[in-house]
Amino acid sequence: MKPPVRHFIAAIALILAVASGYWIGSGKRHEPVSGGLGSTLPTGTAASQDERPVLYYRNPMGLPDTSPIPKKDSMGMDYIPVYADDTPDDRGVVSVSPARVQLLGVKTAIAKQGLLDAPLRAVGRIELNERSVVDVAPRFEGWVERLHVNAVGDPVRRGQALFTTYSPELQSANEDLRIAERLRRDSSANGTAGDPMTADAAARLADAARERLRNWEAPAPRNSSGDAAPARQTFHAPANGFVLEKNIVQGSRFMPGDALYRIADLSTVWVIADIFEQDLGRVHVGQSASVSVDAFPGRHFTAKVAYLYPTVSITSRSTALRLELDNRDGALRPGMFAHVELDTGPARARLLVPGSAVIDDGDRQVVLLALDEGRFKPQAVKLGQRGRDDVEILEGLEAGDRVVVSANFLIDSESSLRAALANLVSAEAAPSPTYRTRGTFEAYDEAAGTVTLAHEAIPELQWPEMTMEFRLAAPEVAAGFAPGSKIHFTFQAGEPGEYIVTRIEARETSADALPARAASSPDRTPPPASPRPDAHGGH
User: Fold this and answer.
1) Is 465 within 8 Å of 530 (Cβ atoms)?
2) How far apart are CA 410 and CA 422, in angstroms?
3) Residue 397's CB: how many other CB atoms inside 10 A?
4) What are the DSSP E strand ranges found in 176-267?
5) What is the C-alpha end-to-end distance of the chain, expressed in Å?
6) 435 and 492 Cβ atoms separated by less than 8 Å
7) DSSP secondary-structure letter at 477?
8) Which residues pair with 113 in a beta bridge?
9) 363 pLDDT band (50/70/90 cuts)?
10) For the chain, which terminus, N or C, has the lower number of CB atoms within 10 Å?
């Protein structure tokens, strides 16, 4: 063959090869694929494996409404699926999308070991030291002739003159004492010539007058010259302090026992503070405390717990405690409002979370654990002491756990609803035990949907042989049976005291024996129950 012809044949073969390859490739690219859009994935791939069986669909607004099929609520919102492979622990877990987390403002914090700032704080008031309060109350009748201390708030010193009084009773007792003393002196001056009886009587009279003056707490006359007793007497302050009350004016009359002055020593004062019942275990007598008042910002007074009162207020659930403070400079005045901070001992490391992380409804205390992938789980905890910002966790958490500190009430309500619905579905899904026995068909009440059956003893339910009423699962169950028919029937428990017949079969011969048994759960023995006997029979 000539060379030009060979070259031409080779070119034609090359063109045919390229065209054939293009046609084959095009054909494969445009080959129709059966099965639609999703059928390009082989059977058993990840797409089908990700589909989880759905138990039911719950209301998106949290209402107690579920549906076995997808549906929408009245506002057009899709019901939320609840999956069958959720474990009991996961059924309280809430998944929140990142967008919703940001919208709710969810914030978290880490549980960590630290020192709890938990000094015991209380509020109180400055009170008088009751042991330093004295009343000036004469024990005799009289009139005030002159006031030496005549204003409330005046300072007085022990022995300082308070007022001068005229009292006929006091003057009479002083005069009796003066006369008795004079008779005794005269008798002693006469020596043996004196009358011993007179001397003895004078001594007794002097002792009686002196005893009266002592009982009245009045001073005895100081003159010994035999002159008449003075008609006026001056009363003096019995202690150092300040006049808190003055109930007399110059010229007023007083009766025995009237409190004319009240004097208090303010060199020491008391602080009466209220401690809540829950904190009583942290307080004891002798405990150090720091007291501050609004009048002196930044100044702290050192005190000690002197007494814990023995009762608890019914209204405030608190107990009063008493602190004693030195007040020789007079800075503290009764009636002031006081802030008390009690020293509760050395600090120690505790597991702490922010106080806002704890949800306490009175019956339970929980925190929300922040899990991975936007999931949150409620966790019951046991609380210890509370501080200014943090709270101690005794049980339920470990160091490093992340908890929600804001928007936790919203998430907890969602979690509680989901757990409640899961428990409800679990209870509904639990099959009721089914029992099978033989008996006699007695009557059928179509209007009530019940049948009356006479049955043999059922040991599983501890029932004797009896005639009783059953509810029918459906009207068709009793179709074709006349009173007196020998039957086998199957029933299960419904509401308390109610039993439902699910199947009735004709019994061919009277010798056909079928012992009662639990058909669906032969290994499960239910608790005894009391059936409702009908009018035709009973136990």
Assistant:
1) no
2) 19
3) 19
4) 232-236, 241-246, 253-254, 261-264
5) 118
6) yes
7) G
8) 351
9) confident
10) N
